[in-house]
Amino acid sequence: MHRPTIVVHLIINIYLILQKEANLGVIYIGDRSAGKTHLATELANPNNNYVRVNSSYFKNAPTATDAQNSIYNKAMELQIQLPSGNKQLILDWIDTPGEIWRKHWQTEKQSEWQHFLNTLKQTEGIILVLPPYRQIITANNINRDDFITEKQWCNRFNRWVNFFRYECPQIRHLLLCLNKADLFCDYEQEGQKLGYLPYNSPLNWQQRNSYVMQRYFRPISPQIQQLNQSISGLSVRCFITSIYNRNLLELPWIYLGSFLN
């Protein structure tokens, strides 16, 4: 059975252009095989709704990073349509090898590892991409043994909880994205229900979060509550995402554009 380890494959450090020229950092993080790279590259599809990416590099981003490579970054831009007008996000795409969490990599790449930790300590927002667990899979012709069990999934999230508590003291927005929604729900129907409109959206952000958390994140709801209580000022929001539905794909980024200001 395939048992992916908790590793970071792709990190995006987002810097918002504010009127006072202050920057708010956001990182994009998750398990190996969670689908982070595909989510990020599909975001650059020109057939967008309310989030547009202006970066040729991002459209041709690598699907993996060599374990021996150091961390490196490329610039990109996002434009998000909000009721108040368009908001521009300037991002640094920071690519890391999946082995970043292994002790030998941290020892051999001490300067890169320390830079990564320093970035985390200044971060106010995190997008965490999670893979689906075995019991939630409903799609046919899928080998469920390729996915971890619900118990393993919960145990892995416990480790993320500890990581956020001790390494991310400034975090104010944590976005949990249960990815590959096309494997565990009617993603078209959910995309229509949860979809964003600049004006007169059927659901507000609180309603979206309550619906998604109760329906898809119930196994880790105690841990989510623990996070909200243990980090002062933190707001945890739950999303489902898929490269096959633009509404679901864009929601986390629209949320950040709406609340990081």
Helicity, as a percent range: 25-40%
* Proportion of beta-strand residues: 15-25%
CATH topology: Rossmann fold
In angstroms, what separates the terminal alpha carbons? 44 Å
Structural shape = globular
CATH class: Alpha Beta
Q: Can you tell me the CATH architecture?
A: 3-Layer(aba) Sandwich
Structural class: alpha/beta
Task: List the keywords.
8 strands, 261 residues, 22% strand, 35% helix, disordered N terminus, globular, alpha/beta, eight-stranded mixed beta sheet
Explain how this protein is built.
Helix 5 (150-167) runs parallel beside helix 8. The chain has helices at residues 36-43, 56-59, 103-108, 110-121, 150-167, 187-194, 205-216, 221-230, 246-259, and strands spanning 10-16, 25-30, 51-53, 72-82, 85-95, 123-130, 173-178, 235-240. Residues 1-24 have low confidence and may be disordered. The chain contains nine helices and eight strands. Strands 3-4-5-1-2-6-7-8 form an eight-stranded mixed sheet, with helices on both faces. It has one domain: P-loop containing nucleotide triphosphate hydrolases (Rossmann fold, 3-Layer(aba) Sandwich). It has 261 residues and is α/β, with parallel strands linked by helices. The termini are far apart.
Summarize the topology.
Layout: E1 10-16, E2 25-30, H1 36-43, E3 51-53, H2 56-59, E4 72-82, E5 85-95, H3 103-108, H4 110-121, E6 123-130, H5 150-167, E7 173-178, H6 187-194, H7 205-216, H8 221-230, E8 235-240, H9 246-259
Parallel strand pairs: 2-6, 6-7, 7-8
Antiparallel strand pairs: 1-2, 1-5, 3-4, 4-5
Helix pairs in contact: 5-8
